[in-house]
């Protein structure tokens, strides 16, 4: 299946991860009471009935809790999402990994002018933390104990299924009364004594309708936390602390969110399985670092875009800060499908404005996209061949970013850029800007973000430059030592007459890196996933991956096979290397982008409301 056809069927994957799975939640040892693949429970399941499905053995760090619930033997489908709460115990979704630090908001946090941010944002469950402080979940209230009792009774078939139903009803009622309800009461008291410093903004469209209560509940029970700040090439990580009630449907979401777009102090996240075009639960969460606020934005209106009417452009929602400090626009660009189910050159822009006369609701604008076309496939049947009247278009954005206060760019790192100089206009117009000469690559060469990246850099008021970096020769059979890192710049990208130019420090071969690493102990690993610095013209950040250890990483959740380095291309030397500490755990693997949002932290917050670390409470 070619790249264009894949997009129509696999649309709305998060950001550049077109081939990545949506993040599930990392499950820690405390949540292993639902690991029904253990030998004791496998024995119990075998003794129960042939109708009970055998537990699939999966590593807990590599699969979300939904996958665990699907794998539970003898557990009726409608019970699984709720029963997971019995197994959460003190699970804090990865508090032992590199994302968590003791005191997140330090002087370093507010002074960092540029950071490398992990797009994957894990949940920190406050209710589970309180439950753990109170002693956790007693063994008698676990799913494991229920199945063991049923197995010991020698029941099988329908009789065993009915017994499991009755036992789970009883255990859930006890768990709710003895564990969840007291923990929720304690949490309410804590929040009453220590009100949140985060401003909660309810979007106008979320005030009414059948989902209004759900959006309010989501907003009241969620707060961003900057749990790690590091100078690049170290990684900066966000978390979302959630305090939703134990019986809330919001707890059925995957245990993490995804940062899709960012501009200055504004970050936009997908929370829940929702993506445009799919009827899944979820919402957009907009975090404003300047105002220390979060806003819940509802999904696109039902039936305005479906998997049959529109395709994904590739990346997710884009963000444009059109008025400092905190006026923003969310933009979903969704190409329409042609009658073959493939991407066409017409598209719908769905826009959400935070201020102005049309604020607080999704508005639609139609546009024409000057997309490159796909050559006809001579091997296809005549009836499937592209005709001049109905060409096949090819474009799949790896990233989207703002240029100034009105312009947005969607970049296919293999083909070029779609530039809209004024997305706020009544009739937005797009133009296509090709990549530098010789850089256009056929889609068969794989994902562009593995060996290329681009970003916009401010050169002063109303002056901007787009930078592009490519690993020349990557994936083309060359030894990694002969692969060259090459950079270009596009000044004033809003001017149609502007052209790409090679940067002053145009290129360097990776073979030069290991000649003199200045004592940094640079591991001899192949670089990939370059990220351009938004602050330093000649600096590029690269990921180093030990492919032999990747399978071990996937199985254990460890990050021993990855590290990151900063490279000064002008001086042709490695500046620093970031290695994960032994025992660091992280799943999914980091997906990083450069941002300057940390320089805005607390700038618009009164001193009495500055962000601080949550107070520690002790329960007697």
Automatic annotation (TrEMBL):
Query: DUF1618 domain spans which residues?
Result: 410-541
- Here the segments flagged for biased composition (Acidic residues) are 375-387
> Where are the bilayer-spanning segments?
none
What top-level branch of life does the organism fall under? Eukaryota
- Ranges for region Disordered: 74-100, 371-390
Designated name of the protein: DUF1618 domain-containing protein
- Taxonomy-wise, where does this protein's organism fall, top ranks first? Eukaryota, Viridiplantae, Streptophyta, Embryophyta, Tracheophyta
């Amino acid at each position: 299946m070619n790249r264009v056809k894949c997009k129509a069927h696999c649309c709305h994957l998060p950001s550049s991860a077109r081939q990545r799975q949506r993040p599930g939640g990392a499950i820690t040892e405390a949540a292993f009471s639902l690991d029904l693949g253990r030998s004791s429970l496998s024995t119990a399941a075998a003794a129960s009935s042939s109708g009970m499905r055998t537990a699939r053995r999966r590593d807990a760090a590599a699969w979300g809790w939904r996958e665990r619930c699907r794998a539970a033997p003898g557990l009726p489908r409608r019970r699984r999402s709720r029963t997971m709460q019995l197994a959460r115990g003190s699970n804090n979704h990865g508090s032992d990994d590199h994302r968590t630090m003791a005191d997140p908001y330090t002087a370093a946090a507010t002074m960092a002018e540029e950071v490398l941010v992990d797009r994957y944002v894990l949940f920190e469950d406050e209710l589970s933390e309180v439950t753990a402080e109170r002693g956790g979940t007693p063994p008698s209230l676990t799913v494991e104990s229920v199945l063991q009792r049923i197995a010991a009774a020698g029941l099988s078939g329908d009789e065993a299924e009915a017994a499991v139903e009755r036992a789970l009803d009883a255990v859930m009622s006890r768990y709710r009364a003895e564990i969840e309800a007291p923990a929720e009461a304690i949490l309410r008291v804590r929040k009453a004594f220590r009100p949140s410093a985060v401003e909660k903004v309810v979007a106008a469209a979320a005030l009414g309708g059948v989902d209004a209560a759900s959006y309010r509940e989501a907003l009241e029970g969620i707060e961003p936390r900057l749990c790690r700040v590091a100078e690049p090439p170290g990684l900066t990580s966000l978390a979302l602390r959630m305090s939703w009630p134990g019986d809330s449907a919001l707890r059925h979401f995957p245990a993490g969110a995804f940062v899709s777009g960012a501009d200055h102090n504004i970050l936009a996240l997908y929370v829940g399985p929702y993506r445009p075009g799919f009827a899944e639960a979820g919402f957009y969460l907009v975090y404003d670092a300047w105002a220390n606020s979060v806003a819940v934005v509802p999904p696109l209106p039902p039936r305005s875009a479906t998997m049959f009417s529109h395709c994904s452009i590739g990346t997710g929602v884009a963000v444009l800060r059109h008025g400092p400090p905190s006026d923003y626009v969310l933009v979903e660009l969704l190409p329409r499908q042609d009658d073959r189910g493939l991407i066409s050159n017409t598209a719908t822009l769905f826009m959400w404005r935070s201020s102005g006369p049309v604020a607080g609701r999704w508005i639609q604008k139609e546009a024409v996209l000057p997309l490159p076309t796909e050559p006809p496939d001579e091997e296809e049947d005549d009836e499937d061949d592209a005709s001049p009247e109905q060409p096949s278009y090819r474009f799949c954005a790896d990233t989207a970013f703002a240029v100034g206060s009105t312009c947005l760019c969607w970049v296919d790192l293999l083909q070029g850029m779609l530039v809209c100089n004024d997305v706020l206009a009544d009739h937005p117009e797009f133009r296509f800007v090709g990549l530098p000469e010789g850089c256009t690559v056929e889609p068969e060469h794989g994902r562009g973000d593995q060996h290329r990246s681009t970003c916009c850099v401010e050169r002063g008021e109303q002056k901007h430059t787009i930078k592009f970096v490519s690993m020349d020769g990557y994936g083309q059979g060359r030894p990694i030592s002969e692969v060259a890192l090459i950079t270009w710049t596009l000044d004033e990208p809003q001017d149609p007459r502007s052209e790409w130019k090679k940067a002053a420090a145009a290129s360097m071969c990776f073979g030069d890196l290991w000649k003199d690493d200045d004592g940094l102990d640079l591991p001899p690993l192949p670089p990939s996933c370059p990220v351009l610095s938004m602050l330093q013209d000649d600096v590029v950040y690269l990921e180093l991956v030990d492919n032999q250890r990747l399978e071990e990483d996937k199985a254990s959740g460890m990050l021993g096979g990855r590290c990151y380095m900063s490279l000064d291309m002008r001086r042709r030397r490695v500046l620093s290397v970031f290695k994960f500490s032994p025992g660091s755990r992280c799943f999914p693997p980091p997906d990083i982008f450069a941002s300057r949002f940390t320089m805005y932290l607390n700038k618009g917050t009164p001193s009495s409301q500055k962000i601080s670390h949550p107070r520690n409470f002790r329960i007697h």
